[in-house]
């Protein structure tokens, strides 16, 4: 487990649009990590998460791994690929060899279809990285968070911890940690603007890798 942990983490969320990219940028900045989003969709509407993380974390080109697949439609990889007559080949979804930590960002939540016989949780399992689970801080988050943690543990996937995004809610944080048998890694408050400066400030709250390595739960 420690070998995998030293290689990085997989950032997933309890939903889409929840803050995975922001959290990925914070982790990359804190650890001077390399970033990889293997499955990018929605390029018809935006420039993509890779460029966003590059700019927010101030990463050099050497710290960016291009997506294995990049689709135009803002849909799950399976649906977006169907529109372009492309089927995802799992052989292209293997961990790149990099120097230092690697932060891998998923697409949507755990049960998002990648191909007919593969979902994001299957990809996570195959890569063998501990998970950082991004959640909302407010109402409804306990149910979504505990369901996601249960799905991960059913596969034996290690969980590094949870990162709530939004206005502080100590009661929800307490219950997510207690009932989910996990830890709150750090918090991302409601931000007026998401900038390289705010990412740099938040990166100071991220635990060190060697500390987290001893705390990963399964």
Query: Which percent band covers the strand fraction?
Result: 15-25%
Helical segment tally? Answer: 9
Largest sheet: 6 strands, parallel
The helicity comes to 25-40%
What string gives the helices and strands in order? Answer: HEHEEHEEHEEEHEHEHHH
Order of strands, main sheet, comes to: 4-2-6-1-9-10
Uncertain stretches of 5 or more adjacent residues: 1-6
> Which descriptor suits the 3D outline?
globular
Class inferred from helices and paired strands: alpha/beta
Radius of gyration: 16 Å
> Tally of extended strands?
10
Through-space gap between termini = 10 Å
The pLDDT mean sits at 92
Protein name: ATP-dependent dethiobiotin synthetase BioD
Binding site for Mg(2+): 21, 49, 105
Pathway: Cofactor biosynthesis; biotin biosynthesis; biotin from 7,8-diaminononanoate: step 1/2
Keywords: ATP-binding, Biotin biosynthesis, Cytoplasm, Ligase, Magnesium, Metal-binding, Nucleotide-binding
Task: Summarize this structure as a short list of keywords or feature phrases.
alpha/beta; two-stranded parallel ribbon; disordered N terminus; 218 residues; 10 strands; globular; 9 helices; six-stranded parallel β-sheet; 36% helix
What does this structure look like?
The protein contains nine helices and ten strands. It has 218 residues and is α/β, with parallel strands linked by helices. It has helices at 2-7, 20-31, 49-57, 77-83, 120-127, 141-154, 170-180, 196-203, 209-212, and strands spanning 8-13, 34-36, 39-40, 64-65, 69-70, 102-105, 113-115, 118-119, 131-136, 159-165. The strands form three sheets. Strands 4-2-6-1-9-10 form a six-stranded parallel sheet, sandwiched between helices. α2 (20-31) packs across α3 (49-57), α2 packs across α8 (196-203) and α6 (141-154) runs parallel beside α7 (170-180). The N and C termini lie close together (10 Å). Its cofactor is Mg(2+).
């Amino acid at each position: 487990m420690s070998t995998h942990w030293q290689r990085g983490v997989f950032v997933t969320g309890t939903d889409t649009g929840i803050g995975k990219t922001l959290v990925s940028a914070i982790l990359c900045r804190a650890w001077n990590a390399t970033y990889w989003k293997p499955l990018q969709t929605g390029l018809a509407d935006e420039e993509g998460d890779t460029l966003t993380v590059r700019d927010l974390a101030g990463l050099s080109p050497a710290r960016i791994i291009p997506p294995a697949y990049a689709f135009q439609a803002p849909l799950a990889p399976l649906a977006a690929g169907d529109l372009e007559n492309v089927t995802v080949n799992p052989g292209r979804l293997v961990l790149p060899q990099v120097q230092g930590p690697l932060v891998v960002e998923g697409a949507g939540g755990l049960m998002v279809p990648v191909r007919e016989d593969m979902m994001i949780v299957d990809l996570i399992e195959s890569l063998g990285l501990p998970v950082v689970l991004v959640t909302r801080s407010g109402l409804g988050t306990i149910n979504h968070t505990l369901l996601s943690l249960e799905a991960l543990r059913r596969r034996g996937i290690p969980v590094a911890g949870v990162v709530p995004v939004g206005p502080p809610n100590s009661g929800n944080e307490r219950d997510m940690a207690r009932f989910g048998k996990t830890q709150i890694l750090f918090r991302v408050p409601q931000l007026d603007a998401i900038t390289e400066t705010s990412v740099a400030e938040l990166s100071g709250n991220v635990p060190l890798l060697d500390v987290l390595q001893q705390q990963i739960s399964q």
